[in-house]
Amino acid sequence: MIFAAIALVFMRGGISRIHGKMFKRSEDLSSAYFLYLAQYKIAIFIFNLVPYVVLKLAT
């Protein structure tokens, strides 16, 4: 996750060119990349932290 975030920040141009050629997309892909990272962080939060809190409250 950290590697993906660092790669997007520092290598945004190269990644956009590669994905633009692969998927024939011309619009800005940066918003899609950061939306993906945001959704991934939310999923990690829901599937890891919430069960931990529930187990702590149950004991």
Question: What does this protein structure show overall?
Answer:
The chain is mainly alpha-helical and 59 residues long. It has one domain. Helices cover 85% and strands 0% of the residues. It comes from Nitrosomonas supralitoralis. InterPro entries: DUF6868. This is DUF6868 domain-containing protein.
User: Can you tell me the residue ranges where pLDDT is under 50 for at least 5 consecutive residues?
Assistant: none
Termini gap? 32 Å
- Total number of distinct structural domains: 1
Helix content: over 70%
Shape verdict: elongated
Order of helices and strands, N to C?
A: HHH
Oligomer: single chain
Features of this protein?
mainly alpha, single chain, 85% helix, 3 helices, 0% strand, 59 residues
In short:
The protein is mainly alpha-helical.
SSE map:
Layout (H helix, E strand, L loop, with lengths): L1 H9 L1 H12 L6 H29 L1
